[in-house]
Design goal:
alpha/beta; Spore Coat Polysaccharide Biosynthesis Protein SpsA, Chain A; 2 domains; 9-stranded mixed β-sheet; 13 helices; globular
Length: 326
């Protein structure tokens, strides 16, 4: 059994793929396997993978499939993975050469099933450390999630900065055919943990695709309602695992916050009319109302309004109407 299985979904990443796979294959932790899922790439990604497989034939396994999305690709990787621990890496990102050894060794020494760290954001020539946690923890420490329940809300639901045991994941799957699929997976893994090793160190090099990121924030995209599907999946999985009552408040807070983030996106759209924005926001709010009818007076909403002034006029109008109703 490999110590770590690294799962890498690949779609049209010819520019970055060589560095991504090479930094994984060259890790100081030797007992690893790499599962690269070519998700119907139309560029030279598959050829690059084939070339790399000859160089790293003992470690690299390639799965070729029609385009089915990141969630499906990760789930396919989980079906095949044999490792004691699982690491997910996106094909445009890369790892420092000692990071799997460090995270795996610390997991074993501290008897934890989940190790998380910080991100190093790569924006062209600029590198910025990102703690990926609202609590701003400035040390390496063990988190007892059963005692520190708010860690579930405060820790980023992103997947790249985490090493998790296969046993901890169990039969959990990512939401497929959806944006924001991490939300359907990571909070459940965190809530299922007894102890988490919180590393205040950069463990993942994340390339910020500036053009794509800007487009996601200021231009309309058709799958904005995917956020509700992923959040509903999170709630459902928490319920299945008997975690919903213990983490009821944290689940509610995550649900509200990430719905508000999408409202922030919609407000910023440049290629949508005011009427179109309001119609989509009203639809999101209607869905949020079904789950948490008093979301508008939650602490999460109040804090969000303070930090995101651009949303205030929409939220104030909605809150006024809801206050009258309730």
């Amino acid at each position: 059994m490999p110590k770590v299985s690294v799962i890498v979904p690949v779609y049209n990443m010819e520019k970055y793929l060589n560095k991504c796979i090479s930094t994984i294959a060259s890790q100081t932790l030797k007992d690893i396997e790499i599962i690269a899922i070519n998700d119907g790439s139309t560029d030279n990604s598959l050829k690059i993978l084939d070339d790399l497989s000859r160089k790293y034939k003992e470690k690299l396994k390639i799965i070729n499939q029609n385009n089915k999305g990141v969630g499906f690709s990760r789930n396919k990787g989980l079906e095949i993975a044999r490792g004691e621990f699982i690491k997910f890496v996106d094909a445009d990102d890369y790892l420092d050469l000692n990071i799997l050894d460090r995270m795996y060794t610390l997991a074993k020494e501290n008897n934890v099933e989940l190790v998380r760290g910080n991100y190093k954001m790569i924006i062209g020539p600029i590198k910025i450390s990102n703690k990926a946690n609202f609590m701003n923890i400035n040390e390496n420490t063990i988190i007892n999630i059963e005692q520190d329940e708010n860690y579930l809300f405060n820790e980023s639901p992103s997947i790249g900065n985490k090493l998790m045991s296969r046993k901890l994941i169990g039969d959990l799957k990512f939401k497929e055919n959806s944006k924001w699929e991490d939300l359907s997976f990571v909070p459940i893994v965190i809530a299922s943990s007894k102890k988490i090793l919180h590393l205040n160190e950069d463990v993942y090099n994340y390339r910020v695709a500036v053009n794509t990121t800007i487009k996601d924030f200021i231009f309309k995209f058709p799958n904005v309602l995917d956020i509700i599907f992923c959040l509903d999946t999170m709630r459902s999985e928490m319920n299945k695992k008997g975690l919903d009552k213990k983490y009821q408040q944290q689940i509610e807070d995550i649900y509200i916050l990430h719905t508000l983030y999408r409202i922030q996106n919609i407000v910023s759209w440049l290629n949508a009319s005011k009427q179109e924005k309001e119609e989509i926001i009203d639809h999101l709010i209607a869905l949020l109302d079904i789950k948490y009818p008093r979301w508008y007076c939650s602490e999460v909403t109040e804090e969000f309004e303070k930090k995101h002034k651009i949303c205030q006029k929409y939220l104030n109008k909605i809150k006024t109407d809801l206050t009258r109703y309730y």
